[in-house]
Amino acid sequence: MSWDSHVHCFEPDTYPYSSCRTYTPRPAPFSALLRNLLTGNFMLIQASIENGHGGLLAHMNECRRGVNGYSGLVWGTVLADSAAPLLTTSDDELFRMHDLGVRCFRLHGLYGGSGHDTT
Questions:
Q1: 38: which residues sit within 8 A by CB, 6+ positions away?
Q2: Where would a tag sit more exposed on the chain, N or C end, judged by fewer CB atoms within 10 A?
Q3: What integer pLDDT is reported at residue 16 of this predicted model?
Q4: What is the pLDDT confidence band of residue 43, given thresholds at 50, 70 and 90?
Q5: How many angstroms separate the CA atoms of 34 and 111, rounded?
């Protein structure tokens, strides 16, 4: 069983970047990932520049429902930071994340400042 263990998808028109970020990548759509995936399974990671985990959860939901024809396993890692603190996340939301395949929470520190790249 093969895994790609760290994948980010960026779709800023649908799931915006954080206004305070250190870099601005080109879009990397989820559909392109699925078309080009060379493994049977993958771990989708919420990047620190994303404005919330809505995109990650939506993509995981698509995989779980088979909307996109994907039949492998997808696990997720959600960023836990000041914008989405775990201590204020409801049990229902945590159970929903788990049902979708979230298995990790990423604790991200800032090194050298948070940046203000908005382009």
A1: 2, 4
A2: C
A3: 94
A4: very high
A5: 32
Dist. CA 109–CA 119, nearest whole Å: 22
Largest distance between two CA atoms of the chain: 42
The three-state DSSP-derived secondary structure of 9-48 is: CECCCCCCECCCCCCCCCCECHHHHHHHCCCCEEEEECCC
pLDDT score at 86: 66
For residue 96, what are its two tokens? 């929903």
Half-sphere exposure of 22 (CA within 13 A, CB side): 9
pLDDT in tens, 62-88: 998 888 888 889 999 998 876 666 667
More confident residue, 19 or 119: 19
Contact call for residues 37 and 3 (beta carbons, < 8 A): no
Run of H or E including 78: strand 74-80
Q: How many degrees, rounded to 5, is the angle at CA 29 between CA 3 and CA 113?
A: 85
CATH 3.20.20.140 matches 3-107: yes
Question: Can you give the pTM of this predicted structure?
Answer: 0.82
